[in-house]
């Protein structure tokens, strides 16, 4: 079976053949239209809280279509749209071949150069990520837009400085210095949009409560170049770029905002 990817023969338009849920009613990403969002005071009354811990020797790997950090420590979130406590499992990114594209969610039709996803699972109800991944209330993912600035993002620098060591598929390293993923969050996490969606990659399970922050984090062009130098396979294989799924219709879903 041809494995899924982002090319012409195996990209997002072909996924429905192996993953029929791709044609479902709560698929992600979506285009975020702030004027269409409903400001919900229940979200502000019950603030989103993040309690992340330092990760000693964080594992960073190249699974072939992104770069991913696996989390072992107890880093949890709750509140906002969430019932119960969700535990951080991994984070990864999606990016473009150029700054004009790369994010999965769009803002009034605008793409950002990249988007960071911090994936959490409902640890109150389920005993593992694997058990939670296909449940309607199984996952909560933070979506953070990346924008270009002349200064590198210090939190991401610990990762972009070593991406050359995971350039090829199935390479992995441990980050020596302990790493607290809280450094990846924007300053203001009280302004976000939230809606019920799915994984943006196969198996596309409709199990994600999405929380997309209004405030982007800022990265340098050199850091973007480091992501674009990652390879899909072994030495000489194509670079990992444009690993994003374009937006799907919101349909009957309610997009809620935590702010006016
Ligand atoms: N792009 S994504 O955040 O939707 C995602 C991708 C793979 C596994 C996940 F659990 C997940 F959440
Ligand atoms: Zn993702």
UniProtKB/TrEMBL annotation:
PROSITE patterns: ALPHA_CA_1 (PS00162), ALPHA_CA_2 (PS51144). It comes from the Eukaryota. It holds the Pfam family Carb_anhydrase. It catalyses: hydrogencarbonate + H(+) = CO2 + H2O. Gene3D superfamilies: Alpha carbonic anhydrase. The keyword Lipoprotein does not apply. It is an enzyme of class 4 (lyase). Its cofactor is Zn(2+). Keywords: Glycoprotein, Lyase, Metal-binding, Zinc. The keyword Cytoplasm does not apply. Its EC number is 4.2.1.1. Residues 2-259 form the Alpha-carbonic anhydrase domain. One of its GO terms (molecular function) is zinc ion binding. One of its GO terms (cellular component) is cytoplasm. Reversible hydration of carbon dioxide. Belongs to the alpha-carbonic anhydrase family. PANTHER family: CARBONIC ANHYDRASE (PTHR18952), CARBONIC ANHYDRASE 7 (PTHR18952:SF124). This is Carbonic anhydrase. It comes from Lottia gigantea (Giant owl limpet).
